[in-house]
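Researcher: Can you fold this with cytidine-5'-triphosphate in place?
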Amino acid sequence: MTALNVVVGVAGGIAAYKACHLVRNFTESGANVRVVPTPNALEFVGAATFEALSGNPVDTGVFTRVDEVQHVRVGQEADLVVIAPATADLLARLAVGRADDLLTATVLVATCPVVVAPAMHTEMWRNPATQANVAALRSRGITVLEPASGRLTGADSGPGRLLEPDQIADLARTVLETGPIRRSLEGRRVLISAGGTQENIDPVRYIGNRSSGRQGFALGEIAAQRGADVSIVAGDTDALPTPAGAEIVRVRSAREMQREIDARLGSADIVVMAAAVADYRPEKEATAKLKKGEADANLSTLRLVENPDILKGVVEKRNAQQTRAVIAGFAAETDNPLEYGRAKLARKGADLLMVNSVAGGRVFGERRNSGWILGRDGSETEVADGSKLAVAAQILDAAEGVLGRSLPN
Ligand code: CTP
């Protein structure tokens, strides 16, 4: 198999240092990386760093290595162009089709997917000039990612922060797999439960499970990049980056998760319950650590009581017209996934159910997933093995389909 040719474009912003990790991410996955900085990017990170990390020469202008016609060749050979960070100035130059340095010339020549990760101060990002440039680029099939919200250079905070390098790399791979990210959820609210709940036994022990939260965060990632306002109510998860602009509500127990989901249900357009909720919790949570062998510690026979079924509760609220949201659930099954999945969909009353087989510990904590999306209307769509972001895109496609049929725009 020939290596993927990735061009990493870097513009002149302080976040240019994060491009080093992005280059590393791609080289470690076996890609051949060519870094093309703007001249200003080299004010932040030296060419030597990019050359050492990529193992390839680094040029900024169209007048170096003229004999090799670089400004045409680099773009022609690329399978993927990822620009991170993209400044307001670079977005403007791309939007009008300038070719005044090697990076803009490369983008003009490239016919492969182009993914742009902006980074700038909030005012510059929100400026109508920048937004018009972003809209122009998106209309041409270029994926301009929503920036993260958070700490910017200096004391400022807000949207405009560069997404984490691994997030950018994963989203760029998803664009390669599934095409440019559509802005199909602008103005919509997507509410997601993710990760495992923890049910306390005492201050140091709990009942938990092996959910990593990756599928839930992947759903948040795609929904946010499609333009939705995203809230993720997250139990125990791996350390995962926050999807662009998403609200992350950290909870521990099923009951806390239910409270936070319910509080956001009224305004949600799509609810996806990807959390692995503990079905039972200890009847009593001890306030002090239970001691082995103490008469009333009961550590050998823990009495459990049933937790609320959050998904079922959401469906009941929809039936009582307290929300109009399209509701999707998950089913992780070790045996007969389709048969059990169909029965679970009927029992829970959701619109959609993503069924996956977790036999032998598969899926938990992994970066890939597969299975079937079952619809209340009897539909059954096979989801081929793909990254959790690619699977998230298909689940959201199905939810958007139901939304389109049930709601006026
Ligand atoms: N779920 C929930 N609240 C619970 C249990 C499950 O919201 N107390 C949701 C999960 O987030 C998932 C779906 O219901 O979207 C199915 O979860 P699963 O654990 O497979 O279902 P159970 O009803 O617990 O069925 P099983 O008997 O197979 O454990």
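Model: Folded with cytidine-5'-triphosphate in place. The chain has a mean pLDDT of 94.
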